């Protein structure tokens, strides 16, 4: 079974050359990097070998995480709890 058969079945392809599936196959054949290694450095170093994958990796690995929405939620819940306690 061809892992990328679903890509050929789609009516519109973003990469007409089929470069992305070949890159993924080549990437999966290689060994994993060590846990201590920096994944961004890996993708920067291998951007010539994996041009499509490196763009995706850099795009998604550089998303900054934030707990601000969670902090706001707990703050609001605390205010609601305080308001209920004060009302009783």
**Which radius of gyration do the C-alpha atoms yield?**
23 Å
The description of the largest β-sheet is: none
Figure out the total of helices: 5
Secondary structure: number of strands: 0
Brief description of this entry?
With 88 residues, this protein is mainly α.
Summarize this structure as a short list of keywords or feature phrases:
88 residues; mainly alpha; protein dimerization activity; HAT C-terminal dimerisation domain-containing protein
Q: How would you characterize the overall build of this protein?
A:
It is a single chain. The protein is mainly α and 88 residues long. It has one domain. Helix content is 61%, strand content 0%. It contains 5 helices and no strands. The mean pLDDT is 78.
Q: How do the helices and strands line up, and which of them pair or pack?
A:
Blueprint: H1 5-9, H2 19-29, H3 39-45, H4 51-61, H5 68-87
Helix pairs in contact: 3-4
Domain HAT C-terminal dimerisation: 23-80
GO molecular function: protein dimerization activity
Protein name: HAT C-terminal dimerisation domain-containing protein
């Amino acid at each position: 079974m061809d892992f990328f058969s679903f890509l050929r079945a789609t009516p519109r392809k973003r990469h007409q050359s089929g470069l992305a599936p070949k890159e993924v196959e080549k990437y999966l054949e290689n060994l994993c990097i060590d846990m201590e290694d920096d994944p961004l450095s890996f993708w920067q170093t291998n951007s010539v070998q994996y041009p499509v994958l490196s763009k995706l990796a850099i795009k998604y690995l550089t998303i900054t995480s934030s707990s601000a929405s969670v902090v706001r939620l707990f703050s609001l819940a605390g205010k609601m709890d305080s308001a209920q306690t004060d009302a009783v």
